[in-house]
Design a protein that fits this description.
18% helix; binds molybdenum atom; 9 helices; five-stranded mixed β-sheet; Sulfite Oxidase, Chain A, domain 2; binds the ligand Nc1nc2c(c(=O)[nH]1)N[C@H]1C(S)=C(S)[C@@H](COP(=O)(O)O)O[C@H]1N2; alpha+beta; 20% strand; 319 residues
Length: 319
């Protein structure tokens, strides 16, 4: 079945249905129950991933207390069964389909305006960085939110390894793409998934490359083996299953911008006072409780990132 696209490319209807209809607590709790069965040893559980993953011994990593969140951490079973990962379908219930995502061998290509293009093996990369755990808020443009204990390393470390030339202004991030894994009805999308940050954003201390969560290697549905967490921006900025970092002097056009430029832009910083063309952004629904909570400017991370945007009033910073 083809998704309905009234104005060309856009998020499907599920994204605009009032939460009450789709963010059904019982559905989530059923997901939660499935999650606990998983933890008990289905073939998709972390235990099996640990055997295949040469870096599994790096988890759990020590928590960095500087990024604590006053809200409760979202239960793992919820965070791993309610996901956006369009490569595997447009519903939130794609965690089973996402098990088709390969994790090893995994090479990360670094190219563009750098001293020397290079290819890094994920496990070599993990040897060269210090993993830490950070508890971050995560706010989707569709108005659901969660709090996740990610494990990873500052993106700044990868930028330093890349040694970009001074002419580089942006980093374009590309997600893994295998047309054979994408369901037929999703093949019309402009793959691969692409996102971008300015170099200043990518080297801000909050920009975090995630390889694990909940004290274990990352689950496939959350973007294993390498995804971004840029918690002051709407969730779509944080690309999953990243394979390529290209340094460039041109602002990258991201996936959702290509899909619908009227509704999605480059900056996509969280702001409760700037509505999406089809819905207000003032309130978010906490995934595991269904509670409606107020959204904060920069998702509460203003002290870290507000300076990045001073004097940029001509830019659409919140779209
Ligand atoms: N490659 C890829 N990355 C992606 C997406 C996607 O569809 N494909 N969805 C984005 C969106 S809209 C959100 S909200 C987050 C969801 O992350 P989570 O499922 O781990 O909560 O991933 C982002 N990264
Ligand atoms: Mo999202």
């Amino acid at each position: 079945m083809l998704i309905r696209m009234a104005n060309g490319w856009e998020l499907p209807d599920s994204a605009v249905t009032p939460e009450a209809a789709w963010l059904d607590r019982r559905t989530l709790m059923r997901g939660a129950a499935a999650g606990s069965i998983l933890a008990a040893g289905s073939p998709f559980a972390g235990a099996v991933a640990a055997v295949d993953d040469p870096s599994a011994h790096l988890y759990p990593a020590k928590r960095n207390g500087e990024y604590s969140v006053e809200r409760e951490i979202t239960p793992e079973a919820v965070a791993t069964t309610f996901n956006n990962f369009y490569e595997f379908g447009s519903s939130k219930d794609i965690w089973r389909e996402a098990q088709a995502q390969p994790l090893r061998p995994w090479q990360v290509r670094i190219d563009g305006l750098v001293e020397q293009p290079k290819t890094l093996d994920i496990d070599e990369l993990l040897q060269r960085v210090a993993l830490e755990e950070r508890v971050y808020r995560h706010r989707c443009v569709e108005r659901w939110s969660m709090v996740a204990p990610w494990t990873g390393f500052p993106m700044r470390a990868l930028v330093e390894m890349a040694a970009p030339l001074s002419s580089a202004k942006y980093v374009r991030m590309e997600s893994y793409f295998d047309a054979n894994l994408v369901p037929r009805n999703m093949r019309i999308y402009p793959w691969p998934y692409v996102e971008g940050l300015t170099i200043a954003e990518a080297t801000n201390e909050l920009a975090f490359l995630v390889t694990g969560a909940y004290g274990k290697p990352l689950e496939k549905q959350n973007g294993a083996p390498l995804r971004l967490a840029a918690p002051w921006k709407y969730g779509f900025k944080s690309g999953k299953s990243l394979v390529r970092f290209s340094f460039t002097d041109e602002r990258p056009e991201n996936f959702w911008q290509t899909v619908n430029a009227r509704e999605y832009g480059f900056w996509a910083n969280v702001n409760p006072d700037v509505a999406h063309p089809r819905w207000s952004q003032k309130i978010e629904t906490e995934l595991h409780t269904g509670e409606k909570l107020p959204t904060s400017l920069y998702n509460g991370y203003g002290p870290w990132v507000a300076d990045l945007y001073s004097g940029m009033s001509g830019e659409q910073l919140f779209v």
